[in-house]
Request: fold
Amino acid sequence: MRWGELRSFATIIGGILILFSTQQCASSSKVQTGLENLIVNYNHNIAFKRIGIVTNHTGVNIKGTQIWKLLKDLPNVDVAAVFSPEHGLFGEAAAGEKVNYSESDEELPPLYSLYGPTRKPTKEMLESIDLLLYDIQDIGARFYTYISTMGLIMEAAAESGIPCLILDRPNPLTGKLITGPILDLEVSSFVGLYPIPSVYGLTPGELALMISDQSWIEAVPSIEVVPLTGWSRDMWYDETGLPWVPPSPNIPNLETAIVYPGTVLIEATNVSEGRGTDHPFRWIGAPWIDSNELSDAMNIIGLPGVTFSPIEFTPHSIPGAAPNPKNNTQTCNGVEIVLTNRNNFSPVIVGIQLLHTIALLYPQKLEIKEAGLNRLFGSDRLSKSLGNSDAINQLVVEIKKESDHFRESAKQYHLYKN
Reply:
């Protein structure tokens, strides 16, 4: 995508955000993000400094104005560089699509991609910077790569002797939902760098404090978190009053974000996870699945907070979201995941049971990419258990113990109470 197209894309996104905020959120927001708190109460932290900003299209205020524009307009603040994560500065790139900004643009400071040849800022990129600032909306899932970028920029800042300022944002899945296995560092990758559960129940600021205190990065910077105001741990994102900005092309709404930590496991198979449709991660299927058979088998399990409806769908290429989806243009049969009660829904357990059920019903058709599944799940325990119901049940018990233990150990990093 050329710079002129990127500018047009940014203008469209900005217009959508402003429409959302003016019509739905501007007067009703219960929560103030770290960005808005910075402008109002922490201005002294950035005064007379050359700032490097790690952000993307989600780093906006309640009116949809991008952070670099807000800070650039402040007196005595020099925005020296902007760094973008996976999906690009404008959310213009699909998952895994490398981004490289090689041309300058008069509307932006120097811009560097951290999802291409370079995933960690170099010393040369940071040599004119006094403070590195991070402001990205996450979704609270371990394999969402923004938190990997956060750790790497913290490490780079420490190596260059630069302090880090984390502008906090809500965890869309609340600060109470914690589920999934702890990552085994033997399978660590960019989709899982830290020994945390699949769904970890912390804000970006809280996780940054934990990463630093636990020395999960090679060098630990001077770090400060600009907190949220008005947020409590039991809040889902739609209870904050803030506009929903899709954090990546295939997380269009909160319901998808809730389901995603479980159905992301389907990515490591030959089954479609719904990319290439308008229901990514909520429509699961393949040409060789019997929709009624799979939906009946899943509903018999009686998983709380969810039902499974038989569906038929056809994935198609969507530039910037799903350029080459699995089973492209093929009719897929499968299930739609329908939330009935998000407060007792466990996405990871649903993902495990769904993949296990497909393995039981279609053992000759299902193909697993073991290395990919191990990276997403966080160990080889799931890939070794598929097709064995006793082993799956034992794995579910182990996962609960691990997530309960993490829940207790993470409390010391909580910045917000119930």
